[in-house]
Here is the input.
Amino acid sequence: MFNLILFGPPGSGKGTQSENLIKKYGLKHLSTGDILRSEIAGQTALGLEAKSFMDKGQLVPDEVVIGMISSALEANPEAAGFLFDGFPRTTAQAEALDKLLSLKKTEIAVVLALEVSEEELVKRLLNRGKTSGRSDDTSEEIVRARIVEYHAKTSAVADYYRQFDKVESIKGEGSVDEIFDALCKQIDVRMEEAI
Ligand code: AP5
Here is the structure.
């Protein structure tokens, strides 16, 4: 099993690159943002609780997203590996993920961290907000609140995995294809090492 985390601030291209990476490597895509948005669309109790945080650009409580990921891992016993997108977002989530994976006798192989300037992130998200229908993309205040939340709580996740030498930084500006090639190079190296 080969598991990777695509890491980076809001708007750094995690979702865009995930689509191409899962096709190439046959991984199961687990995006907590996508799962939460589908809960909101289904008007479930979990979705309604999550929406109140997401609309302010704040993180949803750890226990909610950890429970979601635990269920998703259980629901996919045949997966060749997982690509985690938007998870883990706190050190507590990272520790919980490591425990869940160790129960399955597997682990995170690599954390690929996309690096994009703050001005480019804001530009991309506000631009997407014109058409995406995502309420958290429509106001600059909420977009910037998401970036503040990233620096306050999520950037520490990279430090957590650095202690295990699992983090590779990738320039997240340039064409989608160039960034995809840089990500694939790192994945191929780690896959070779895992054989
Ligand atoms: P989530 O859905 O995870 O959103 P996010 O991290 O804010 O990320 P985005 O989807 O906005 O950006 P992305 O990095 O995927 O970039 P994308 O490829 O879309 O989370 C939303 C909310 O859910 C959170 O705020 C939180 O409330 C909650 N949540 C989710 N997970 C949670 C967790 N684990 N714990 C607690 N709460 C959680 O690209 C963005 C735009 O840029 C697109 O328009 C794209 O076309 C464009 N773009 C991509 N690449 C390029 C490029 N190379 N050049 C130019 N434009 C590009």
About this structure: The beta strands are 3-7, 28-31, 82-85, 108-115, 167-171. The longest strand covers residues 108-115.
